Amino acid sequence: MFDKTNETKVLRDPVHGYIHVKYQVIWDCINAKEFQRLHRIHQLGGDFQIYHTAEHSRFSHSLGVYEITRRMCEEVDSITATLSEYEKIQVLCAALLHDLGHGPFSHFFETLHKKHHEQMTCDLILDPETEIHKALVKEDESLPQNIVLILTHKHPKPMMHQMISSQLDADRMDYLLRDAYETGTSYGNFDLERILRTLRVKNDSLCVKMSGMHSVEDYIMARYHMYWQVYLHPDAKSYEIMIQQFFKRYEKIRNISVFEPLMNGELSNNDFYLMDEHRMFYGFQQALASEDEILKDFANRILNRHLFEWIEDPSDQQMQDIKLKLIESGYDLDYYYYEAISHSKAYLPYTENDENQIIWMLDSKNELVSLSSCSQIVKALLKMKNQTNKRIYFPKEIL
Asked: What is the dihedral of CA 290, 291, 297, 299, to 10 degrees?
């Protein structure tokens, strides 16, 4: 038997109504300092600079992923019948902790830290000194390792990682609904209830009854619109460029103590725990007093939202004109002129490059067929031609 809380704990949530916790190990993980740190990490990186209500955190998203996974385990009969209680605890812990290793400003932090958040998550779970590890081994000695197997897609039951990380998973389902709600947009909405109702297990793999196909199509289109309207917003990219250029300059200055653990190589797990967005903003505030004018300027731009202007698909003449104006105004092109290139194929909401990426549908003969073989919408998406988009970013003062 696995320890239960004295009563089912509930946490209010704007997306799911309530988050339900009945296992003590889940409650202990939520209260561990490494998980509490996620309160201090924005879910959407720099998007809160564009959508002013997008102040939600990795903490709330992680609870949401846990809740959807809990509902899969308890409401989808074929999942309930397939997993033992211990396996359910493993996948619930993996859902809760999947973003434990995220740093400030979303994925940009990884370019400074030189370690992907997935690896950092596993390191924190396996480190005997972390409160998370202690909470897990208190329940079962093998729990940390089994969670890591799920998160690294190495668990002998692939269905367990599919529930959290696949083309149709609790992670994506929560962040689409949550990010749409918090940004005040409707792009990310889809029928979660219908998908859960039509979710099945076949050959130890997740699949969806054919009657749920249109709900899956809506989910995929929600991803498509959220990427192009929210996640890839050019002003959000501008904010990221501010931070990137700040640290490009900082590498030559190295005079702010709070950034030094990050710049000196691999962070210890305790250094990582302290490196939240509060610490980063404190460093930017310190940089306002820097004697280096470029570093001071970028700190001011970050703190007071003086974003770069941008031009989509500029002509060669436009690029030359902007560079000339920057030089005439005394700006260093190394820092104040930036070219960003994106490929539409990199942000497709759905691909079927290999079997692990396919959303499987369960047809009337109880056989598995790929989503693209029965959905005209998805078939059309897979035929989209790759387009390359270019933007140039620069201070708007020169215009």
From this structure: -10
Per the structure block, which two tokens stand in for 36? 């509490």
The CA-based diameter of the chain, rounded to the nearest angstrom, is 73
Q: Are 101 and 121 in contact (CB under 8 A)?
A: yes
List, in order of start, the domains of the chain with CATH numbers: 4-221 (1.10.3210.10), 233-307 (1.20.1250.30)
User: pLDDT of the chain along its 399 residues, tens only?
Assistant: 799 999 999 999 999 999 999 999 999 999 999 999 999 999 998 899 999 999 999 999 999 999 999 999 999 999 999 999 999 999 999 999 999 999 999 878 888 888 899 999 999 999 999 999 999 999 999 999 999 999 999 999 999 999 999 999 999 999 999 999 999 999 999 999 999 999 999 998 999 999 999 999 999 999 999 998 999 899 999 999 999 999 999 999 998 999 998 888 778 999 999 999 999 999 999 999 999 999 999 999 999 999 999 999 999 999 999 999 999 999 999 999 999 988 766 667 888 877 778 999 999 999 999 999 999 999 988 888 777 789 999 999 999
Model pTM score: 0.96
Q: Count other Cβ atoms within 10 Å, centred on residue 223.
A: 23
